[in-house]
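Morning run. Coffee first, then this:
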Amino acid sequence: MISLVVPSYNEEENLPVLVHRLMSIMESYGAYEILIIDDGSTDQTRFVLRQLSQAYAVVRYLSFSRNFGHQMALRAGYDNARGDAVICLDADLQHPPELIPTLIDKWQEGYEVVYTVRRPDPRLSWFKRTTSRNFYRLLRAASNLNIEDGAADFRLLDRKVIDTLKSFKENDLFLRGAISWIGFRQCRVLYEPAPRYAGRSKYSLRKMIKLAAMGITSFSTRPLYMSVLLGFAMSLFASLFGAEVLYEYFFTNATVSGWTTLVLLMVLIGGVQFILIGIIGVYLGKTFVEVKQRPAYIIGDTSDIDETVTKWQSAEQGYYSPSM
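And here it is:
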């Protein structure tokens, strides 16, 4: 069986079109399922999912009790997919469903991870292209990850990869980083992003920054070491500056003035200290979240209430609340 996992948020117009395109592509592959994760949508997405699941036996859905984010929707899909291979793609049709046969062919060749990389899209604004490029550069520079520019969540994972991901205990798991980190045989497939069918993008700059911070702090302590190096550099600079002041005072009889310089240095050092404290605080905050061991997500409604989601569980599988 092949599972198609579709995270969605306010995609009521896109889902019927996507489901029909997926069904037309998958009809020659035998057993398959379409598992759609509703990330706490505020439109009629849940109602549309109920209709689709009633009309087509291959369609399943999980609906969160609130918005938990795209990464959690992906995680819920991986946790609940039943297939020997799992393909994830977005609901807005920018991930072309027609590329699915290529991903399956690569899987049948023996690759356990088949990921996609977006070709440069001239329709994107300069700001969007720049922030996306710098997002991946920042990840590579500040973490131990090697994620290509334009890498997408549109990918195929073998069942052994899915089972490995489900063994991760982190609540705040950066999936692109985890999939890169675990290894297995991987290959890439390039694709041309299609225009969004309907609606607008839900991925703001704020969410991209948050995703970058999650990726860096989940897979690297490099920012902490960079903080130590910056502290040494600041101390060295202060020592050299102090030595210069003493030299001018004792050997040149010059009166050292410079309240402006002193104030600027104090502000600079204070700002750097706040940044370093903030970096440490982010790591402490992640530790605090993990220690509480709350579920990563809560399922409020589902097309197939299963015993695996009827009680409190570890963070990687979530919680089903029948009263939602």
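The CA atoms of residues 142 and 222 lie 6 Å apart. Good start to the day.
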